[in-house]
Amino acid sequence: EPEVTQTPSHQVTQMGQEVILRCVPISNHLYFYWYRQILGQKVEFLVSFYNNEISEKSEIFDDQFSVERPDGSNFTLKIRSTKLEDSAMYFCASSWDRTSYEQYFGPGTRLTVT
Amino acid sequence: DQQVKQNSPSLSVQEGRISILNCDYTNSMFDYFLWYKKYPAEGPTFLISISSIKDKNEDGRFTVFLNKSAKHLSLHIVPSQPGDSAVYFCAASVRVGMLTFGGGTRLMVKP
């Protein structure tokens, strides 16, 4: 069964460093998402991406964040200068297209900022 | 942000019995609702969904009920199995795209 994959599973970085989280969405999906879950809190939407551009973003997704689909398979989330409060599980998700509500999630990347 | 709430942080049920997980929402613009299951160290797994034009959707042991007037939905699992033990999230969407999640309910099914 096709699945969303994410690498790395755990990333430790120092405050102020740049990190790139990688995702490979399900191959024929066209709509991509990033969510995060801070420990003990809800899963929160960050950004959606369709047709090589951002469709929607939340207040969390400020100038420190960016997304990119550098090739036909990968979808990345970059945090330019990490802060302690960026420590969270980051989930990538994908869905068929803009008519499909159901999103399929990857296993997540645990980001720890020290 | 309390647009989607799951008021029970945990639920314990005997194997074979019914599990009922509840979810309330405040935003009347939500038009689609989903349930996800999450095991530790894994991402949320899509379970079942329902459009706001329906009041029930069934898939095997899982049934979701939607009461729009009460802004309430519930997930019924019958019969419950030990493998169903996980955290269950309800999520809602105004349109295709951003999902707004509840805080989750940890279900424990005892053998």
Detailed description of the structure:
The complex is a heterodimer of chains A (114) and B (111). Chain A has 114 residues and is an all-beta fold. Chain A has strands at 5-7, 10-13, 19-24, 31-37, 43-50, 53-57, 65-68, 75-79, 88-95, 104-105, 109-113. Helices cover 0% and strands 50% of the residues of chain A. Chain B has 111 residues and is mainly beta. Chain B has no helices and 11 strands. In chain B, strands 2, 4, 5, 9, 10 and 11 form a 6-stranded mixed beta sheet that branches. A 5-stranded antiparallel beta sheet of chain B has the order 1-3-8-7-6, with no helix packed on it. Chains A and B meet through strand 4, strand 5, strand 9 and strand 10 of A and strand 4, strand 5, strand 9 and strand 10 of B.
Task: Describe this protein with a few key phrases.
heterodimer, A: about 110 residues, mainly beta, seven-stranded mixed beta sheet, four-stranded antiparallel beta sheet, B: about 110 residues, six-stranded mixed beta sheet, five-stranded antiparallel beta sheet, 11 strands, about 55% strand
Task: Classify the beta-strand content of chain B into a percent band.
Answer: over 45%
- The number of distinct helices of chain A, counting runs of at least 4 residues, comes to 0
The biggest sheet of chain A amounts to: 7 strands, mixed
SS-derived structural category of chain A: mainly beta
Q: Which stretches of chain A are poorly predicted, pLDDT < 50 over at least 5 residues?
A: none
Instruction: Report the C-alpha radius of gyration of chain B, rounded.
Output: 13 Å
Q: Strand fraction band of chain A?
A: over 45%
Distance between the termini of chain A: 37 Å
Q: What best-fitting shape of chain B do the alpha-carbon axes yield?
A: globular
| C-alpha Rg of chain A (nearest Å) | 13 Å
Low-confidence stretches of chain B: none
* Quaternary state of the chains: heterodimer
Which structural category do the helix and sheet elements of chain B fall into? mainly beta
Order of helices and strands of chain B: EEEEEEEEEEE
Determine the fraction of residues in helical runs of chain B and give it as a percent range.
under 10%
Mean model confidence by pLDDT of chain A: 95
Helix content of chain A: under 10%
The largest β sheet of chain B comes out as: 6 strands, mixed
Number of helices of chain B: 0
